[in-house]
Amino acid sequence: MKLQVALAVLVSVFAIAIDGYNCKVVQFIFGDSLSDVGNNNKLTMSLARANLPFYGIDFGNGMPNGRFTNGRTVADIIGDKMGLPRPPAFLDPSLSEDVILANGVNYASGGGGILNETGGLFVQRFSLYKQIELFQGTQELIRAQIGTPAAEKFFQESQYVVAHGSNDFINNYLMPVYSDSWSYNDQTFISYLMETLQGQLKMLHSLGARKLMVFGLGPMGCIPLQRVLSTSGDCQHRTNKLALNFNQAGSKLLEDLSSNLPNASYQFGDAYDVVNSVITNPSQYGFSNADSPCCSFGKIRPALTCIPASTLCKDRSKYVFWDEYHPSDSANELIANELIKKLGFQNDTNAPTPAPAIAPSPE
């Protein structure tokens, strides 16, 4: 009798543990350098890595962690404010089935895009197709750990973020070295992106993604790199127009998918207007600089990355851009707050506050 009771208790405890796995809501993030938290740092041949100071200076211990900014990503901040754990990079050596069940996974890779050909000059990077393939491998691990029914429930209750698109323009279509630049025009290239993205999002739905958000593009023509490559130093109108058209098409695609895919709640997060407003009127948002990077080589432009020989601005919290491509922690927080407001996400008042952003050695 005692043995039967003990076995019954053991079975009950095991069932509770499995149910606990199912009930834990985590994130699975697919993206590029705006969301990368360390994958590219493990790709030894990649030319797009954030593995040197001063990347990560305002995050944790201040050492490089794979984020292409001084602090947090937009996905970090939204997850924090929703009370969700921060998912580790797929290539993090500590990743295990238990870590996945407790925290999710971030597959984002600097230089990656919706299209497989995007970012080829960076040599190594995970495209969105590759990231989805890695996610399929993750699912196999979890099914083996907790069984198929529990795994299906776990993945269907998780949150999904897809943050791709900027590299498909900046590091593909707008660069003559890529065949897409002469194989398409502006309209047909965006159609190509939407057709590809539609198939990828349907694939994620077939793998259990029910609650999914796609990040829209900001005014890409106003990033420091695009400005410095123009003759006037102003924003590049055509690049911004491409971003607006991508967002318009993406919003329509997500609306259609959400209506037609079973149990799908797919949302498109568009923060273009607020970022454009910040760039146009930075002082109204507490910024002093919206056209050049905080981390640079001074007057030597463009400085394609941030390295120990770079010069930091005096106050990182006052700069919209961290380097030639990427927003600062302060700008990412503003973008995240706008997306939270637009999409009606619940805000967790216990979310971590940003670290101080004052340079250790002001100029």
Automatic annotation (TrEMBL):
InterPro entries with a match to the protein in the record: GDSL, GDSL_Est/Lipase, SGNH_hydro_sf, SGNH_plant_lipase-like
Top-level lineage group: Eukaryota
Keywords in alphabetical order: Hydrolase, Lipid degradation, Lipid metabolism, Signal
Lipid metabolism listed as a keyword: yes
Alphabetized GO MF terms: hydrolase activity, acting on ester bonds
Signal peptide limits: 1-20
Family: Belongs to the 'GDSL' lipolytic enzyme family.
Name of this chain's protein: GDSL esterase/lipase At1g74460
Organism: Escallonia herrerae
